[in-house]
Amino acid sequence: MKLEKVTDRSGRKYHDACGAAHGLDLVGERWALLVIRELMMGPRRFGDLRKDLCGLSANVLTQRLEGLEASGIVRRRKLPPPASVQVYELTDWGYEIEPVFILLGGWAARSPAHDPTLPISAVSIMLSFKTMFDARRAGDAAMTLGFVFGEDVFRVSIAGGRLEPRRGGIEDVDVTVVTQPPLVAAAVYGKVPPQALAADGGMEVRGDAGVFARFIDFFDLPQKASMEA
Hints:
With about 230 residues, the protein is an alpha+beta fold. The chain is built from 11 helices and 7 strands. The strands form 2 sheets. It has a 5-stranded mixed beta sheet.
């Protein structure tokens, strides 16, 4: 009997009416969720996605983008002149998955195996702020912070017990932190004093350093889950 080679992606689906199962049909391929994560803060070029997803080959990234586009989660468009480059962005429906990242990130951070010292992207650190922000600690705080990671620039606003990160627009912020994402993680979650990071040349705090110090106090990694039965 001659065996037939099966290449139809439908054979890799769960064939289950459960919404969670269909969700995994849509985003369960390796790297798919991380590609979506990197698009959460706006459109990205192919090369930018490749740069921020360590270990992802160009071939696999192409496959994941094609799959997400076919599912209606991602779309391609060309930026107007003078940029005139192709970018990938989430559709309106694609953006609706953000709460899943917030819940999954908060839940997984409680794993005893979670290593916060591993590489982290700029978008990932911004989403982690939304995940780990303690509104009770922030109280009635109102502040704006700019984060500059090379060419990536983000604005984080806190007001009314809510934290909102977005790209760009840092001209009028209270303080600007010029550094790299892992060092922000070290300061915010590892509680390494910014002065120590600045002394090593890895972080520059421009503006009201007290605002950044207060901002750091609004975050803590959650307690690890018990492994006992």
